[in-house]
Design the sequence.
DNA sequence: AGCAGAAATCCGATATTTCGGACATTGATC
DNA sequence: GATCAATGTCCGAAATATCGGATTTCTGCT
């Protein structure tokens, strides 16, 4: 109820910039600032931060100084831009280590990426969106970093078809926003198709999709289930669509294996 | 200059708790709070946070609410403790990906931990202290998490002997605080010994120490050097002291190999 | 050199947040 | 069931951090 004072939540969804109105707490401004950098995924100049977050310039300067001193932010290059600093990594590591499932998942994801050599990920739901929690790039050169912590519509992903496993058609309709069935390129995912994929995935114990978000990419995912059999996360590979079929099958086996271990674990 | 208002810096070194005096900015209180959780490396109850950071109780409640809402913190279990939340992981990942050397180092550390099966680390200096930046546990059960982002006296570590490589005896004396030559168990590292280790390490291209911080642990480290040949980081293994000699030699070769790649890279 | 525009700093006033302490709630112990 | 302790909420007042705008410094360009 406090942060909303600064950001108009209604305006949220779209390109995340807030129009500040009144005077706000330092904390709320800092939260907006960090969130902005995260969405940007790149260093930003202070003036731009001020504009894009709707924070008065003098305030941003003041806060950035404080944050740089605390190593939450770092001044980059000599171009006067700032980005996240080492403290965030330390705190983030503490978080990862404190969550049992994620700590174990890290092992599996690293192992998969190392042995198979393709990009492996660990994904979960965050509200009604899909989220990459862990990402370990394979040996390929490109696609170095992925979108850790960036929310994506559930129907855009292979894993999404597993993560809503336990819901009936009506529940899903209520849960996933209408507009999320439209892909970035404008194509539309028919609901029946989605439900069919889902049922097939539950049956087979894995799911594979090609050319969803990106035409030339194939995703394969296996479900991590809790003791009640509910899918609480997925492990997946992201590979070029032209990857050899046998290799893909090997990957799926590896995924099922890893996902199985994590399902046991908790 | 702002954060100091809250924390008495002189009191620092010891058990990190500050005695708040005057009214402080929310930001400064939050920084103290996060730093406290990081040192603690465990969830804490709000009342304890208030006591240990010297922040008024009502203020902590207020701030924690804001931070939980932003996912910077998370309420754990049902015992009312709080700890870092997922947002810290996302911001931390952004940081890691934004620093070239660290991003590359992550590959190497993961690879080493996977292939050799022992805990691998990537370390750097932070001021006049040694710091584990990346840690990847091996296949052994114990010693799951390490002290990422926790400052350690340079002489306590194998890597430390490489990281001050470029300094002369006088520089080192000026750089490393006197008291840092005393190990946690009270033993004292003679300066000549340290300098000898250093010279030998530079000569050999790696360093190995046993029973420094912990009697039953051996550390092996290889230097990552910049274009001027200066040691800017190290890669290392942390293994039980009774590890087979041949295995240790193989590890050292693997370390030199990885460190060499990173030295090339930048 | 000189100029224009942007980046960064400075400063005082006021709207606001922090803080203390009182009050409510929960839970454990005897 | 009563007592004590710990946890969490609420509220008004006072201290002060945020903000606007003016000033200064920097940078690139003609």
Sequence:
């Amino acid at each position: 109820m406090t942060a909303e004072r600064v950001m108009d939540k209604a305006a949220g969804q779209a390109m995340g910039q807030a129009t500040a109105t009144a005077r706000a707490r330092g904390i709320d401004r800092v939260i907006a600032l960090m969130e902005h950098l995260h969405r940007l995924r790149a260093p930003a100049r202070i003036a731009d931060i001020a504009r894009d977050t709707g924070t008065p310039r003098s305030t941003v300067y003041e806060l950035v100084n404080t944050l740089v001193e605390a190593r939450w932010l770092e001044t980059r290059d000599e171009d006067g831009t700032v980005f996240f600093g080492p403290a965030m990594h330390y705190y983030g590591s503490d978080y990862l280590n404190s969550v049992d499932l994620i700590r174990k998942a890290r092992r599996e994801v690293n192992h998969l990426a190392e042995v198979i050599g393709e990009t492996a990920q660990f994904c979960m739901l965050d509200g009604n969106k899909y989220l990459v929690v862990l990402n370990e790039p394979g040996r390929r050169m490109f696609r170095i970093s992925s979108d850790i912590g960036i929310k994506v519509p559930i129907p855009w992903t292979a894993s999404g078809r597993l993560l809503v496993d336990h819901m009936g058609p009506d529940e899903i309709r209520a849960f996933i926003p209408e507009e999320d069935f439209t892909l970035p390129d404008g194509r539309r995912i028919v609901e029946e198709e989605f439900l069919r994929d889902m049922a097939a995935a539950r049956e087979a114990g894995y799911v594979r999709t090609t050319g969803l978000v990106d035409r030339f990419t194939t995703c394969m995912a296996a479900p991590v289930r809790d003791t009640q059999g509910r899918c609480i996360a997925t492990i997946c590979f992201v590979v070029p669509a032209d990857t050899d079929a046998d290799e893909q099958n090997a990957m799926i086996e590896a995924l099922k294996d890893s996902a199985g271990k994590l399902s046991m674990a908790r």
